[in-house]
# Entry
Amino acid sequence: MNELVERVDEQDCVQGVVSRREAVQRGWLHRIAVTVCRDEQGRFLVHQRAEHVSRFPGQFEAAVGGAVEVGEPYEQAASRELGEELGVQAPARFLFKFLNRGGLSPHWLGVHEVVVQASVNPAPREVAWYGWLTESELRRSLREWRFTSDSRELCDRYFAFRAGQE
# Structure
């Protein structure tokens, strides 16, 4: 977790470059990009983080993502993370961002979406399990399984966003 990130302010304007470790330790805002993955049937990809990862080991997530690197747009970071974590090469479509005060530290969370049309090949160093869930299965799982701290807020905002698009 010692990659370089841009420290940003409450308006998501760059203030400088810091290590992600320092941003987390000091509670400085930085950027994270996540992607909600759906298949052609509309199901959602949910995955369980590997037990040996430093952040949220063994917990479930409803999106794939990670830190936005210095000078990297949210969309590029989201697509990069898709490749790194799932072996999926696809452009992520930016939906919205919000200031997330949950998780390890406060951060801007850029939320993206992609319809996965190819097979998923998760990186075993990051993903212990994955599966495709219907919306009702995902909503039930969010109540019953141990998800990362920001997954519930992410899903609430994602479903509200989608409802506003219909």
